[in-house]
Design a protein that fits this description.
Number of helices: 2
Shape: extended
Strand order of the largest sheet: 3-4-5
Radius of gyration: 18 Å
Helix content: 10-25%
Oligomer: single chain
Largest sheet: 3 strands, antiparallel
Order of helices and strands: HEEEEHE
Strand content: 15-25%
Distance between the termini: 44 Å
Number of strands: 5
Structural class: alpha+beta
Length: 110
């Protein structure tokens, strides 16, 4: 259940269906559960990042549950399946042939 959900409508919007997965407190697939209860996960990593320091252009990452925090977005929970399958996405770095990124500088009015 999503921690911000308080009403049935909020649960319908925010909750991601429960799915089994591996992990534990002493594994790379970090996941926490209450002692003396079921093994239902209560906590876990929201972002996983793998980098080969000898090859900085070879980086991989994944975000739980997706890239958007808006439940109406197609990216709200689009990484749940790959996350549970231990799949990762290539992460572009400065040396990659990535399109340039635009930046907007916000300056408050005096």
């Amino acid at each position: 259940a999503h921690p911000a959900a308080q009403t049935p409508l909020q649960h319908a919007l925010f909750d991601i269906p429960k799915q089994p997965h591996q992990g534990g407190a002493s594994t790379l697939a970090n996941a926490g559960f209450g002692l003396g209860s079921t093994f239902n996960t209560r906590t876990g990593a929201s972002y996983r990042f793998i980098a080969d320091l000898g090859s900085p252009d070879s980086m991989h990452s994944i975000t739980w549950p997706g890239q958007s925090g808006h439940p109406g977005s197609t990216h709200y929970a689009d990484q749940v399946g790959p996350y549970l399958a231990d799949d990762y996405f290539d992460t572009l770095s400065e040396g990659d042939d990535a399109e340039s990124t635009s930046f907007i500088k916000l300056v408050p009015e005096a």
